């Protein structure tokens, strides 16, 4: 056996510097585990309760189901799925969320590039106005906007919710992408300008590919925000048949709080798709970090 093979077969000894580094990082690791537990335990309890009967939920905590006898049942899911208009509202949620996300991210990306790399009169003023709109509470705009939509015949339609989400979400999104795109290397854009590339070419061929991490993150947050929205949909949809899932499942609970136990199953159904979208886009997020890096 060679000396190299003998050295590889020996157990690796940790240097004092590595041990000291691990000890210094121990509080950080413990903090991360505590935060993960704070977020994970309630979610786990929600999922477990969604498979429990009403009697079990009223007599014992969710953790008792982890031990035999488990007593799992699908009654809550059957009740939710048998509620009128639930299947239709799920499709409505998709018809609201996907276009609203595409519209917002597209406009925010173009505006972020424009405010970062295009020179025009009043650029800083308009950007300050957009940033200032972030502090305006949306609650004070709901009734005026609803009256405007009612006057134009848009109330209760998908277009009304698309426009509402776009108007309420764009200030922050433009601010975020303006900073992300504005932080890209100036030399790349100057070289493209010298080569005769137009703003359209610089936007699609340089800004967008190099901003994939920021755009992917924004898509995740916008999709989850629109999918889980209740206030905007409830205000502009009302009793329209175009109501999303968040509005329909509120009918599971009576005015006195009855039927709350069915919300666990409804919540699991509600969060399943956003979780899948997050896990799917996570790959593109990591890929965008590597592909968007500037090599010297």
Quick structural gist:
Helices cover 71% and strands 0% of the residues. With 296 residues, the chain is an all-alpha fold. It is flat.
Give a written overview of the molecule.
The structure is a single chain. This protein has 296 residues and is mostly helical. The protein folds into two domains: 58 residues; 208 residues, MetI-like fold (Orthogonal Bundle). Helices cover 71% and strands 0% of the residues. The chain contains 14 helices and no strands. The radius of gyration is 26 Å and the shape is flat. The chain starts with a helix and ends in a 5-residue tail after the last helix.
> Please, how many helices?
14
CATH homologous superfamily placement of the largest domain = MetI-like
**CATH topology-level fold name of the largest domain:** MetI-like fold
| Arithmetic mean of pLDDT | 84
Helix amount, in percent?
A: over 70%
Give the topology.
Blueprint: H1 3-9, H2 16-50, H3 54-59, H4 75-82, H5 86-117, H6 123-132, H7 142-152, H8 158-182, H9 186-194, H10 199-210, H11 212-227, H12 231-237, H13 245-248, H14 263-291
């Amino acid at each position: 056996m060679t000396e190299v093979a003998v050295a590889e077969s020996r157990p690796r000894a940790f240097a004092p510097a590595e041990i000291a580094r691990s000890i210094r990082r121990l509080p950080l690791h413990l903090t991360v585990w505590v935060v993960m537990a704070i977020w994970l335990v309630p979610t786990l309890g929600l999922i477990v309760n969604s498979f429990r009967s009403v009697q079990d939920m009223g007599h014992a905590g969710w953790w008792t189901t982890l031990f035999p006898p488990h007593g799992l049942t699908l009654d809550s899911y059957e009740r939710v799925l048998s509620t009128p208009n639930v299947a239709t509202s799920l499709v409505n949620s998709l018809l609201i969320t996907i276009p609203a996300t595409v519209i917002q991210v597209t406009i925010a990306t173009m505006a972020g590039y424009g405010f970062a790399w295009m020179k025009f009169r009043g650029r800083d003023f308009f950007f300050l106005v957009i940033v200032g709109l972030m502090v305006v509470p949306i609650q004070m705009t709901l009734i005026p906007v609803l009256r405007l939509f009612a006057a134009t015949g848009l109330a209760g339609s998908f277009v009304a919710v698309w426009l509402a989400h776009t108007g309420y979400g764009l200030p922050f999104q433009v601010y975020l992408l303006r900073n992300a795109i504005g932080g890209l290397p100036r030399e790349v854009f100057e070289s493209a300008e010298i080569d005769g590339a137009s703003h359209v070419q610089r936007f699609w061929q340089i800004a967008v590919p190099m901003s994939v991490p920021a755009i992917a993150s924004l898509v995740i947050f916008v999709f989850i925000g629109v999918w889980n929205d209740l206030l905007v949909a409830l205000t502009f949809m009302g009793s329209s048949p175009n109501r999303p899932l968040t509005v329909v499942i509120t009918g599971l609970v009576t005015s006195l709080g009855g039927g709350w136990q069915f919300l666990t199953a409804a919540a699991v159904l509600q969060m399943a798709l956003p979780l899948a979208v997050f896990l799917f886009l996570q790959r593109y997020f990591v890929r965008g970090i590597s592909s968007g890096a500037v090599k010297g």
